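Bit of a strange request maybe. I'm writing a small parser for structure token strings and I need a real example to test against, not something I typed by hand. Could someone generate the tokens for this chain?
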Amino acid sequence: MEDDTAMDNRDLEKGLLTAATSQNSTAEPSPVPSPHLEKGLLTAATSQNSTAEPSPAPSPSAATPPALVLSNSGKRIDQAGRKKYVKKVTGRLNDTELHLAAQRGDLAAVKQILNINSQMVGTLSSADFDHEVAEIRASVVNEVNELGETALYTAAERGHIDVVKELLKYSNKETLVKKNQSMYDPLHIAAREGHHAIVQVLLDHDPELSKTFGPSNATPLITAASKGHTDVVNELLSKDCSLLEISRSNEKNALHLASRQGHVDIVMALLERDPQLARRKDKKGQTALHMAVKGVNCEVVKLLLEADAAIVMLPDKFGNTALHVATRKKRVEIVNELLCLPDINVNALTRDHKTALDIAEDLPLSEESSQIKECLCRYGAVRANELNQPRDELRKTVTQIKNDVHIQLEQTKRTNKNVHGIAKELRKLHREGINNATNSVTVVAGAICNSCLCSHFYCSRWGSQ
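Reply from user aminoacidic:
Good idea to test on real output. This should exercise your parser:
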């Protein structure tokens, strides 16, 4: 009896426990653990008869055997009904057996692990039994390894469509949107790996998954476009075309990344749905054309220019047009394609006052740089200092005119000052003249008045006489 108890204690330390059920007063021996126990699944039933012998307990102090339910990541129900999570893992990433089965694509093993019903016995009612089975199964499916990956994530990454379908039967919203440490969820990782069928199954299960965000705020569409998975891109757009409007944290959209990688079919598919995408800029002011000329696929450049030829002269934040970027990257074929456009300005200046020819001459000597310089010169390219020579002469002329006008204004100012002084003096003289004239008139008037008085006096005198 002590040996049996010791064995039970060792099993419990591993997450396993065996318990027997006594059906009558003549109890049968405890049943041999089934193969399911090796997978970490076990149930123990309570005694049905009061006269039955007690089953081996995990510890000498236990009065009655605890009812236990154990799984890879399932629950253990102790005597008080408290639920504790128990996890059995293996491998360096602490994968559960469900993870390992999903990695292998072993559908039979996945079904066996998730077939909780056949691995449980007990006295619970039907409703309680079903509820407990559902909880255990959900716990198993939602378990993650050290990288934060669920079994569904693992199956989606490896491309095991049948395993994905089986796991979806028992997956809730939490399982579907759960991200690993790299911020990928099952749909996003399937889109990145190009598993079109799995993407389709997941979107049919929940179309809203297409709007989840991964690293750098990238959507599954942006990730699939950058990787060149045309079928996945078309599948995502068929479910929600508004995904085209969503950009990464650096404001690059799906067209930016597909253009940079030279994915012709994806660029075509994106432009067919929205030609205005060609004008969208990222945080550096770059259009999809700026990104395309950094690559080596001239067909992508042609597609973008067919959508909107005027974008060839759109500068980024540093004043670089597509021609400047293509020259710096030594893309001979693309430079030739750009120079054939009627809207091109071969001598456009960057913010640091460089033309495409200046950039070409700064390149290390090579066959490509020589071809680009020759091509630029053929279309009238010049250096920035040559381009600015007439401008410098004009600047000198304008400066001289400005100086002459300033001198004339100063002379006019002095003349006005002199004229003002003269006018002031004249006004003074005028006032003095008026005063003098007034005094003279007063004197004359006085004299006349005196004469009149005298005449009147004498006339009166003679008249009286």
